[in-house]
Write a structure and sequence with these properties.
The protein is α/β, with parallel strands linked by helices and 182 residues long. The protein is built from 5 helices and 6 strands; from the N terminus they run αββααβββαβα. Helices cover 25% and strands 13% of the residues.
Length: 182
């Protein structure tokens, strides 16, 4: 019997972080669904290609490059050029993690018909964090994108996220969610 973890999302779509986010089509193929609660990290794992001397981060995640360097004294390579045109790991497609509504990133205001997801932003409709905590923001990212999407907005605007630590992974997920779709 196959076992599906919370990041079992249809290709290109939002990742589920709660059992009620699971795609109905996926659930129809399951004998049983085990609800183990909300995912603590929110975003999926860091994926590293360690086949060469210099490890390459294929997908950023909760374990940052600094975490890896601190534990192993190795610096991982990560840049747009390491992503390549042919994905070799989950989450490397240009458009991925996308809700049905279009996503506008680095938004500083809300446009008509949008749901505004804030980061320490007082006038937001939904809040990734009200204290500037990147770990809290990562844990809530996909849940709030699901919540916003269910409100059927014209688009979802997301405030700028600091691009440090786990913020790099949040921004990477948001860039893919906002990318043009095929």
């Amino acid at each position: 019997m196959p076992i599906v973890a919370p990041s079992a999302n249809p290709s290109g779509k939002l990742s589920p972080t709660k059992v009620n986010h699971l795609d109905k089509a996926l659930i129809s193929h399951c004998t049983e669904v085990i609800d183990a609660g909300t995912c603590s990290a929110g975003i999926e794992s860091t994926i590293i290609d360690a086949r060469n001397e210099a490890p390459v981060i294929l997908r950023t995640g909760p374990i940052t490059n600094l975490d890896i360097k601190t534990q192993t004294n190795m610096h991982c390579v990560y840049s747009k050029s390491t992503q390549g045109n042919s994905p070799i790991a989950p989450g490397q497609l240009e458009s991925h993690y996308a809700p049905f509504a279009n996503v506008r990133i680095n938004a500083t205001n809300k446009k008509k018909g949008e749901i505004f997801i804030g980061f320490n932003t007082p006038n937001a409709d939904l809040h990734l964090t009200e204290s500037g905590d990147l770990i809290e923001a990562a844990a809530k990212l996909f849940d709030l994108l699901h919540v916003a999407d269910k409100l059927n907005p014209i688009s979802i605007a997301v405030a700028p996220i600091p691009n440090i630590g786990i913020g790099e992974a949040i921004n990477e997920r948001l860039a893919r969610a906002a990318a043009p779709r095929n």
